[in-house]
Structures are given as structure tokens and as C-alpha cells.
Specification:
By secondary structure, the protein is of the alpha/beta class. Helix content is 44%, strand content 16%. The protein is globular and about 55 Å long.
Length: 308
Amino acid sequence: MRIGNIELKSNLMFAPIAGFSDTGARHLSARYGAGLLYTEMVSAKGLCYGGRGSEDLLYTTDTGVPTAVQIFGSEPEYIYKASKDERLHKFDIIDINMGCPVRKIVSNGEGSALMENPTLINEIVCAAKEGGKRPVTVKIRAGVKMGEILAVECALSAEKGGADMVAVHPRYREQMYAGFADHTITKMVKDAVKIPVVANGDIVDKASLEKVKEISGADGFMVARGALGKPYIFSELQGKEFDYDNKSAVLEHIEILRSHLPDRVVANMMKLHLCHYAKNTGNTKAVRMALATATDLDGILKLVDEYL
């Protein structure tokens, strides 16, 4: 699969997930066959104003796999400035978040709120292309209000603005992350645009991937929650053999985070991940209980040694 001038070795992608798509999770996903990685979403204004939080989100390792930096914002001038930022030069693709349903994002006219203004989508994509001088992609939803499909019009506006690919998570903003992804909407987008279309939503195993392929006819497939605690899912989905040790993966994940973050931050981040890694064992309940009393990284490491 090709996105602009970027050739992917696999059409399976590790999605941008706030709180989860950190550099450790991306590194492990790449090892097991993800063809494209995404950072967590980064504020365009934060990049322009030099926010410290942006630096942490932009840290990356050399995985040998193309990586997209996902930025969000609603003002083309900030998108343009952020896309020019030299800190983004190490990323192969700039992705614009047009699907986040979280209230504080939407209330600022960002994320999925952009889908109510296709003209602005066009302007934002144009700004990112002009500023970044590299492939630009967008990630959208089905729409905002239940039953009001906006995905096709928004995808066409993004394409007109110069987007090189569109990823569709066919839930409405009102659904948040509940219900089911309606990939007949992804198919509508695929039929409407000439650029590659990526299907995102409800891909958790080989059977669900095949179902989404059949319904959507998409060019690529993005795995989100299905990859949490299971970086090896990308090998499973491709039918490839792999070696995986849960404890070793967790310890490597921790060490990658420790290379650029304070231990207290790593501990808090890993609390989220460990709830998912624990599902690979028979100790999910015990891990959740132990996490309630783990106050620092030493406590986290002790938990890993005992239960994973």
C-alpha cells in the first residue's frame, strides 16, 4: 500500500490512541508487523507555543517502520505552522485528527467537530500540505449526530485539499466508542474518493478483519483497542508465526518509556497498559487489584514479576 510517496510493507496500522499509542507500544507493534504507526494526537497550538507535553508525545524510536504524527486543531494558520515545525521532520506522514469525540476537544471546534465544516477541512489539509511538504492523511468518523452521514462529503473535501489517504472510523461522535462500527459507511467513502481508504473500528482478530475487508473494500486496516496489550495481533492478522513472551514485552515497554520519561510518569502510563497486558494471563482480576496499591515504578515492576 502506498500513501503519497511512502510505501508500506503491510496495510495493517497501529491507530493513534490517546494514552496508549506511546513510543513503547509503537515499537512493539512495529516488531510484530504493523506497517504504519501513529503517535498520540498532539495539539497544533501546543507545538506552536512550545509546550513541554508535546515533546514527550513526539519521542520515537527507530523501528524501521513509517510513522505518522497526528496533530489536532481547527485553525489553518496553526496547522500550517505546526506542520513546518522541525520537530516533525522525523515523521513520514502528518495526520489530522477529525474524529476525536471528547467534549473538551469538540467544544473547541476540533476533532470530530470539524466534520460539520467540510470547507474548513479543505483549508486545514491545504495548510498541512503546504507547511509539511510531505504526505497528509486525515482520520474521520461517520459523522456527528446519529444517522447523519458526513463521512463522504468530508472525505471528498480532504481529497480536494490534497489529502493522500483517509481513515474512517464509522461510528458517530454521539456514539463515542460504544455500539458497532458501520463499515458500509467506509464502503461509501471508498466508492467516492480516488485516494486510499483505511477502515478503522472493531478489528480484533482474523475473523473480524476479514468481515471488515468484505464490507468496506478498504485499502488498509487500522487496529486500535484490539492491539492494546497484544502487539502481536499484527502477526496474527497476517497469519505469520511469531514468538511472544508477555513479561518480556512489558519490561521492554517500560524500559523504552524510561529512556525519556521520569519513573513516576512511566508508572502512571503503565497502569493503563497493564490492565490490557493482564488479559494475556489468568490474572486479570489480581492485576487490577494490585494496581490500586502500586504507587511507584518499583511497585509496578513487582506486580509484573508476580503476575505477568
